[in-house]
Amino acid sequence: MAEVILEALNLCKAYPMRTGSQLTVLEDINLTVKEGEFISILGPSGAGKSTLLRILSGLIEPTSGKILYHGKPQNEANPSIAMVFQSFALFPWLTVLENVEVGLKAKGVERELAREKAIKMLDLVGLDGFEDAYPRELSGGMKQRVGIARALAIEPEILFMDEPFSALDVLTADNLRNELIRLWAERKLPIKSIIFVTHNIEEAVFLSDRAIILSHNPATIRAEITINMPHIRNKNLKEFKLMVDDIFAILTRPKVEAPFMLRKERYQFLPHAKVGAIAGLLELVLSKGGIVDISELTSDLGLEVDDVFPLIEAAAFLGFASVKEGDINLTDVGIKFSRSDLLEKKVIFREMALKNIQLINQIYQVLTKTEKKRMSEDFFIEILENHFTKDEAWNQLEIAIDWGRYAELFAYDYDSGELYIEESEGEIEQNKEKVDV
Amino acid sequence: MKNYVAFPPVKGISLSDILVLFIIFAFVSFIFFIGNEWKGDLNSVSPISLDYKNLPYYVVQSVSRIGIAYIFSLLFSIAYGYLTKKNKVTEVVLISLLDILQSIPVLSFLPGVLFAMISLFPNKRIGVELASIILIFTGQVWNMAFSYYNSICTIPRDILEVGKIYKFSRFYRFIKIDLPYSAIGLVWNSMMSVAGGWFFLMACEMFVVKGKDFRLPGIGSYIQLAANEGNLEKVIVGLLVMVIIIVLLDIIVWRPLVVWSQKFKFDNVQGEDEKESFILNILRNSHILESIWDAIESKIDKLNCYLIERKHFYKEQRLSKMSTIIVYALFIVLLIILVKGCITAFKILSGLKISDIYLLLKAGLFSFLRTFTAIAIASLWTVPLGVLIGMKPKIAKVLQPIIQIAASIPATALFPIIIFFLLKLGGGLGFGSIFLMLLGTQWYILFNVIAGAYAIPQDLKDITELYKIRGFRKWRVLILPGIFPYLVTGLITATGGAWNASIVSEYVVFGGEVYKTMGLGSLISESSSNGNFSILLASTLLMSLIVVTLNRFFWKKMFLLAEEKFRIE
Question: Model's pTM, two decimal places?
Answer without folding.
Answer: 0.77
